[in-house]
Amino acid sequence: MKKLIIIVMGMLIAGCATSDKALLKAVKEKAPTSANAYIVFDSAFVKVKEDGSYIKRTHALIKILTMKGKADFGSPSFSYTTKYGKVQVKKARVIKKDGKIINVKKDNIKDIKVPAFGKFFLPNVRMVKIVYPTVERGDAIEYVVEEVITNPPMEGEFDDMVFFEETEPIGTKYYEITLPQDLYYRVYNDKEGAIKFHKNGKKYVWYANNIAPIVREPAMPPLEDVSKKLLLSTVKSWKTWSKWYWNLTKDKFSVNDTMKALIDSLLSDKRSRIDSIKALFYYVSNKIRYVATTMNGKKAGYEPFPAQKTFRQKYGVCRDKAALLVAMLRYIGQDAYPVLTNPMIRVEREIKTDQFNHAIVAIKDKNGYTYLDPTAEDIPVFLPFYEQGKGVLVSTPWGEDLSYIKTLPPEDNDVFVLMDMSLDTLGNMHGKMTMKGSIIDQFFRMMVKKIPPEQLKSMLASSIASLGNEASLDTIYYTDPDDFTKPFNMTMEYTVKGFAMKSKDKYVFNIGGGAININGRDPFSLDKRHYPVYFGVPMSNKSSIFVHLPRGYVIKGGPDTMTVDNKYIHYSLNIEHQKDGIVLTSNMTYKKSLIPAKDYKNTRELHNKWLKNLKTNFILERQKRR
Length: 626
Fold this sequence. Notes:
- By secondary structure, this protein is an alpha+beta fold.
- A hairpin with an 8-residue loop joins β20 and β21 (403-404).
């Protein structure tokens, strides 16, 4: 296998002139077990000109091993924006497991509009899709695709992000670039040094062999944050990016008389600066729809529509809504600027690549910048909680450095659950659960406005399912989601039949709870982890549960008061016995946004110790008469 890789690498370096004989040999090599597909090689050759235009030629050979592999790789697509350049397929073939080679016909190579997704339909974004005929398990697909960029977003500059790991194994990954400009580069997430580097004049080469797949784990960081990756750029300073985006947007902030009249009416009863800012923020976030039907200007995908057009249309994407809010804020004397950010992944500071996919707003004052996301509908604050800690680049005439939004302490990212539960003589539980807190406030306001009532009730029924197999949600009620002056809370009333096992003079029951799920999965379910546990933000989950007991019964057993603590978590459980019941007060605090893999074992042991205690059964016995 190693010899084959060296042979293929030599041919790749020679310029993608891989012979059919070598390809057939590669296809017949035994692929790693438990894979859906095997990326035999994936290579890219980039040639950049002085003006930043470039040609990237990608050559890949992928062996299909399962039906999932066929679904994932059997119809590859390559998107492009017509404002910048085009994509062409130079070669597309199926290499059958018996050695037969089938060329893909032109009719099976489609240049089509990117289908609408969610709120977005962008006719000037297209994709070239290759449909491989008669692909079966054991076959391989090959393609050579050329991306030609004649109008780069930033003239005279080039940047790229290259991933050297996928969710399927890779035999060889190869990236080569030749360019006249100085190049800044760095490899991330490669402690073992798997990615090799070679430089010859203005030609730079990175490659790696026998790359194991990324195996997904519950509550892991985004793949972009953990994958071995290469960032490279000719841009020396973040200030260059900042000033570049400012120059794209600076002429978009004018307001007309209609806009001025609307702004004046919105602020007619506002007596403070913050109330005025909120009024404009709520207008843009809630009255201007977050939707797009085209991309504007020569710098499509970056350049916003003029604020007046977005105001007139009453819709726009993030950059359009950001430009409109900046214009309105500047009209009332606020020092506002557009901001580039990415709410999904970590923006790496060292190499100045375009890692952004979102635009928001910053207001400058004596204390620094306050950030506002006008795409965040139905929330009472300026930023969704998940944007904490994310990289931001404020665009100004003088240029700014990359910075990061402040991460709030866990008590400011809280969920609080108040439960009142009554156990009847048949062992059934009748309860009321009220949920509130900053995360609840942001998340549930949106849910109750966007989701039909019956569907919402069905979704929320799962929150009480852990209380018993026969748990049923009886009713839901909540505060006004449109009233941002008051905290939002939601109350559910429910019944759990057979909550307690009942014998002649005894009840046995379990309160349950104590687990945290992210995307429906328990982050502490694995014995060991390769990647960190990622919560997104530090957070605090608190609950207070009052359980009314049947008259004449006393507690003879149950969980103990307990506290477990390390630098990542703080869990506490307090149990108070009262005349007619018990009160359980718990606190699950995640002090940091992630738990490194090296500290997972100890933290999991503490978590499980606390969870085991919490799930200890309560035992009630009838009090003997004296």
